[in-house]
Amino acid sequence: MAQTDRVKEILSWYGSDNPGTKTQLARLLNTGALAGTGKLVILPVDQGFEHGPIRSFGVNFDAHDPEYHFRLAIDSGCNAYAAPLGFIEACADKYAGQIPLILKLNNSDTLSKVEPCSAITGSVDDALRLGCVAIGYTIYPGSDHRNRMYEDLRQLTLEAKSKGLAVVTWAYPRGHGLSKEGETAIDIAAYAAHIACSLGSHIVKIKLPSAHIEQDEAKKAFEKGKVPIGTLAERVRYCVQAAFGGKRVVIFSGGVAKGTDEVLEEIRQIQAGGGFGSIVGRNAFQRPRAEGIDLLKKIIAIYKGS
Amino acid sequence: MAQTDRVKEILSWYGSDNPGTKTQLARLLNTGALAGTGKLVILPVDQGFEHGPIRSFGVNFDAHDPEYHFRLAIDSGCNAYAAPLGFIEACADKYAGQIPLILKLNNSDTLSKVEPCSAITGSVDDALRLGCVAIGYTIYPGSDHRNRMYEDLRQLTLEAKSKGLAVVTWAYPRGHGLSKEGETAIDIAAYAAHIACSLGSHIVKIKLPSAHIEQDEAKKAFEKGKVPIGTLAERVRYCVQAAFGGKRVVIFSGGVAKGTDEVLEEIRQIQAGGGFGSIVGRNAFQRPRAEGIDLLKKIIAIYKGS
Amino acid sequence: MAQTDRVKEILSWYGSDNPGTKTQLARLLNTGALAGTGKLVILPVDQGFEHGPIRSFGVNFDAHDPEYHFRLAIDSGCNAYAAPLGFIEACADKYAGQIPLILKLNNSDTLSKVEPCSAITGSVDDALRLGCVAIGYTIYPGSDHRNRMYEDLRQLTLEAKSKGLAVVTWAYPRGHGLSKEGETAIDIAAYAAHIACSLGSHIVKIKLPSAHIEQDEAKKAFEKGKVPIGTLAERVRYCVQAAFGGKRVVIFSGGVAKGTDEVLEEIRQIQAGGGFGSIVGRNAFQRPRAEGIDLLKKIIAIYKGS
Amino acid sequence: MAQTDRVKEILSWYGSDNPGTKTQLARLLNTGALAGTGKLVILPVDQGFEHGPIRSFGVNFDAHDPEYHFRLAIDSGCNAYAAPLGFIEACADKYAGQIPLILKLNNSDTLSKVEPCSAITGSVDDALRLGCVAIGYTIYPGSDHRNRMYEDLRQLTLEAKSKGLAVVTWAYPRGHGLSKEGETAIDIAAYAAHIACSLGSHIVKIKLPSAHIEQDEAKKAFEKGKVPIGTLAERVRYCVQAAFGGKRVVIFSGGVAKGTDEVLEEIRQIQAGGGFGSIVGRNAFQRPRAEGIDLLKKIIAIYKGS
Amino acid sequence: MAQTDRVKEILSWYGSDNPGTKTQLARLLNTGALAGTGKLVILPVDQGFEHGPIRSFGVNFDAHDPEYHFRLAIDSGCNAYAAPLGFIEACADKYAGQIPLILKLNNSDTLSKVEPCSAITGSVDDALRLGCVAIGYTIYPGSDHRNRMYEDLRQLTLEAKSKGLAVVTWAYPRGHGLSKEGETAIDIAAYAAHIACSLGSHIVKIKLPSAHIEQDEAKKAFEKGKVPIGTLAERVRYCVQAAFGGKRVVIFSGGVAKGTDEVLEEIRQIQAGGGFGSIVGRNAFQRPRAEGIDLLKKIIAIYKGS
Predict the structure, then answer these.
(1) Chain A residues whose beta carbon lies within 8 Å of the beta carbon of residue E93
(2) C209: nearest Cα among C171, C177, C247, C244
(3) Are the C-beta atoms of residues C178 and C224 closer than 8 Å to each other?
């Protein structure tokens, strides 16, 4: 496992972490088809919990089985697989050592109409006993309950780091504090990435940002700073910049399932904008297995620059 | 206690669990008239707490006595008996080793009109000292308080598993987030089963689902996926599928007391749909003892395929 | 699992234990070919640790593999299988629920010449996670270190009972305080059984006692009380009496491997003297598998009274 | 349970104890035929552990059964019954609430020849779960290991008192520091009682002291102080005096079994000397049950002053 | 990281372990030039602590620097590197993720002449924060202090397993109970391996056994069982057998530095006897770096069967 210069460079950004956490980050960066490139493609499957099973797996019935996703992540060359407790437990034993695992420690369903706040559904000790490289956690900047989420994440992060695990944060703006359009606004997306980094996360996942700007002061600031945000690549570039000047790993989610061409074009923009990679869930598993693997391999090829 | 192939197959789905928890699951699956078949009939008696004694036991006065239910479960050949702390304590000593016990760790009464959320009424240590094979826990997806329930269950599950116990979750959609009809809607029932599995439960109990679909997106997904839900058997089949592609044990509750023929027809549908069995409470104890035992034996006979 | 009158009677002797511990005792008494009779035949395999592998398994090479012993105990109809941590761990997962397990929590090797004192090699938490019904522990009355062993056992017993496990004690007189002949003397064997019971053990295992009497005062007492100890059956009877007037389960070890006839004659004497059964190790596994199973079945037949 | 003046007076000596501990002392003093008199007769049965079963119970075979002793203590009107863990556990459940129990927390056997030091064989938590009024503990002043015993007692005493239990100490001089005759010498007996009180015990049990004086300085001091120690009553009186000027409860053991007249004469001397009562073990159970009860009743009658 | 059939087979022997521990075992087996073969070559460097720096590193001065050994293990294609706390800490950060690390948790120096017993010099939490795959621990069967070592290992093993780490035990017979020749006797080597496995170790390291037999009973048993031990390969084969019938990973140490041909001949014998690999310390680092790497690569080639 000779380390590439790029992986060494990325690890150098996390100087305050102990060797255990760095070892896990290295495992993430040195696994799969993108091993050593500093790019990441991760398969996340928490949609069953977040949107319900029929909406998530109805179009590809085999995907109800957690094993489907372990195999999909391994066979397509992903760097890692992320899922809630039960989904990880279902196959962690059978596939031990075959794919880095990220245990999603909180989750939300669509069955309640209250202000968004995910429930804590797993623990750092679960991550250890299941052999995971990292914990995953979702924050909803903009929610009235954001403080509780930030505070829980703080505590879990401290514990994870002391036990040699990495922290991957899903930063999803949402809630009373934001307009619907604002949830993906470029200022808000960059802001959310920055908050996640400030909370000590190693890897941050955000949604692809739109050109909308939610906050007036932000609009002025983009203009004053002459920061280009016209293209998706430019917006990706600014989000990466917002994450500690590019010294934290920011990856992007593709959102709802869409056509292959559309997905690949987004990936090219992320790559052009200096993004570190993608979390691809629905677009990967809401199509037949062969097509899903094919898409993931094409995405990986773009990040490889080949 | 030679293990049947079916029991071995079911245990293989729980690879991440320690041998202690698997031993308890094996005890559940290897007890009673359905021993070795992979099917389960469980007698649950928490109605006294949930609905009050007169509504629960008024029509069959002897059933006020916890011993009535221990004897009913044993004499009818059930796999297990589930009840709250006091009910279990009342006879766990006298019947030690005669029937696997599931300690219901939370309960709700009808004396308060607030958003539904059960109180924690027992502990994992209680389950150990009382010789139980599993803890039981109710979640109310749809309640504004669902997160607290998910989080408490997470913690109890981790503790139970580390001490070699199994986890049985009652997944009962309820609360502000749902219409009354939605509580048993097929999309919601399947969703609730999936959430319980994602929280790490070994066995999930849901209500028999109706053909109603609560969420618009779910309706589209059922149509798009061409998932048949016209008959009860088909709906049972989808709920089992929603529970990790059929790799978690899902059992069904009969709900309110009704006529014998109606009950047995439901059981036939569950069996036809690949359900793993039933939790039969009121229909078992809200009739004279001989009739209750007779009904349970008929139910068991259907699951035996005889 | 209807309880026989005899099992009910035995359980009634342990009134101060919680239902969890009684459930485990019931599992022990209700498993295998002797289920329900109140008699026990247990396969113990700690000889590898105690005497080394070549002395233990050289004559039956397959017995080096822990799985051999799980299968031997199951296939011959034993009530339980007892072994040290590593031996139990090797197959507890594969055979979960198929045979009650007793985790030997201390062990001694023959590589050191100091006053006998076993090392603690497992914990109550190990017993829980491995799904065991009981902990096992060896005391050496007569050793200068007996107090440490009694005190460790006391602590483990308290913990085991609070977590719903049973306690099986190997009471093996040995050490500076005794002559070599005294180790199996009738007064000492009975004394050791009594000490183990006084320490709160549920089941006590002792060696078959000889007619030798080690202590002068004991000799006078046997004479004064006119207690017959001429035959093995009579000595067994007194050891059972010494264990709380016959209200604790006392089982006997066969010791070194010997001829089948000799073994079976000993079993008949134990049965005639009212002993509760046998722990048969070397005589079971130091012969070819078919012969070992055959011998165990013959032993079981004697205890069945058939 | 109206308190007699005498009981009130005795309780007043223990002002620093919490009401829980005082409640237990009151239960001890208000039970049995001597209730309210401030006198105590206690049945202790740890001889099985201390001397072996045949020496203890050979002459009265039924006494091997722990139940024999519970019944003996209750039927003869004793204030309490004291025994090691296993003996108490055997019947604490069946006789719960019928006789105050003292759990002997340490015990010694005769199978090892090392310097005397009892092993700790029970815990304060055991005493609580078994419903005992007090813990019992033996110290051997004169042993090379006395400090370990004093220190263990200190810790157990602190725990017992914080949990509302009383402490009964057996103070038995023994070991390298003393001549054989010195073990019951008047100066040593009084010294031992004083040490037990100084360690915080509520009730102290010593052997009947002889007129021998072990330490030269003590001899001079008895002479100088003109303290009469010629008769047994005088020696009892001095031992009581040594226990905080009579403000700690000191009771006396009868030692080896002997003739009824001899026993009763000793009791009269204890009564004459102001002793608080007796612990009568072997003299009570090493004769037929009817005789044992008769003897205990005669002893009680003496203490009643009738 | 597709798993080879051989690695899957080896992992299947550890069924009672959680997925975390299995993941670490998989990392060990899937790293370096022997990845996937089921064979292991590990570089251990605790000689500085065990024998002092000048004896250990005097002939190859650069080896005083811990970094020398990290590089040596990585560059030669070893599966793992094992060392005490300070040695690991020195470079764990710089080489995070480049080589699986085994933290030796106890060590002994040559500065005291007492009966051998290593000091605990690290913790499981250290192993986690340093990113190690396993803890390492040395036992000295034959030492008067063996019990303390077994008991400490037991505790560390339970903790390591619960936190998803593996356990590697150095089983080195030594101490008053053995003759000097007996330390490497075939019966003792096999016995030591068996003890380490019984204590729950995943990987056991022993010294290459001689044809000497230390215990008379063992001599008889080898003869009776007709177990060939004439060649080194035969003795290796029996030691592997002694480790749970070949179902635990046993590796061998080369001992003192010697000529290349001699070393390689030993490796061929280990390979022929079915050994799982080697721990090569002094022979690797007590020669110039290029020669050390060359030797390790030749050893690896033999284990590859090429």
Answers:
(1) 18-19, 22
(2) C171
(3) no
Given the residues D22, D104, D161, D205, select the one marked as catalytic. D205
The whole-number average pLDDT for the span D177-193 is 96
Mean pLDDT by 10 residues, chain E (306 residues): 90 97 98 98 94 92 95 97 95 96 94 86 97 98 94 97 98 95 97 97 97 96 96 97 97 82 95 97 94 97 92
Is the Cβ–Cβ distance between C45 and C279 less than 8 Å?
no
Q: Exactly one of C39, C205, C220, C304 is catalytic; which is it?
A: C205
Regarding chains E and A, contact by 3 or more CB pairs under 8 A is answered as: yes
The vertex-A255 CA angle with A253 and A256, nearest 5°, equals: 155
The residue ranges of chain C whose pLDDT is under 70 are 1, 255, 257
> Rounded mean pLDDT of A96-107?
97
* Residues of E marked as catalytic: 205
Q: Residue window 34-93, chain E: list those with CB within 8 Å of chain C.
A: none
Query: Torsion angle of alpha carbons D6, D7, D8, D13, nearest 10°?
Result: 100
d(CA B61, CA B38): 34
CA gap E205, E171 in Å, rounded: 6
Q: Is B220 a catalytic residue?
A: no
Nearest to D78 by CA among D95, D57, D65, D60: D95
pLDDT greater than 60 at residue B236: yes
Q: CA nearest E201 in C: which residue?
A: C86
List chain A residues with CB under 8 Å of E11: 96-97
Q: Determine the distance in angstroms separating the CA of B17 from the nearest CA of chain E, rounded to an integer.
A: 7
Question: A105-108: which pairs have CB atoms within 8 A and are 24 or more residues apart?
Answer: A105/A135, A105/A136, A105/A137, A105/A156, A106/A137, A106/A138, A106/A149, A106/A152, A107/A46, A107/A49, A107/A50, A107/A138, A107/B150, A107/B198, A108/A49, A108/A50, A108/A138
Give the residue from chain D lying closest to C161, CA to CA.
D126
Contact yes or no for B18 and E19 at CB 8 A: no
Which residues of chain E are within 8 Å of residue B19 when distances are taken between CB atoms? 15-16
Chains that touch E (3 or more CB pairs under 8 A): A, B, C
| Model ipTM value | 0.93
Q: Which of residues 4-43 of B touch E (CB under 8 A)?
A: 15-16, 18-19
Query: What backbone torsions phi and psi does residue E185 show, to the nearest 5 degrees?
Result: -60, 145
Tell me, yes or no, if A163 comes closer than 8 A to chain E by beta carbon: yes
Q: Kindly report the average pLDDT of chain B as a whole number.
A: 95
pLDDT tens per residue across span D72-94: 999 999 999 999 999 999 999 99
Distance CA B29, CA B38 (A): 6
Partner residue facing C164 (CB), from B21, B26, B128: B128
pLDDT for residue C255: 65
What is the band of D255 on the pLDDT scale with cuts at 50, 70, 90? low
Asked whether the predicted pLDDT for residue B134 surpasses 70, the reply is yes
Q: Which residues, including other chains, have CB under 8 Å from residue B81's CB and lie 6 or more apart?
A: B42, B43, B44, B45, B69, B70, B73, B74, B99, B100, B101, B102
Among candidate residues B205, B247, B297, B298, the one labeled active-site is B205
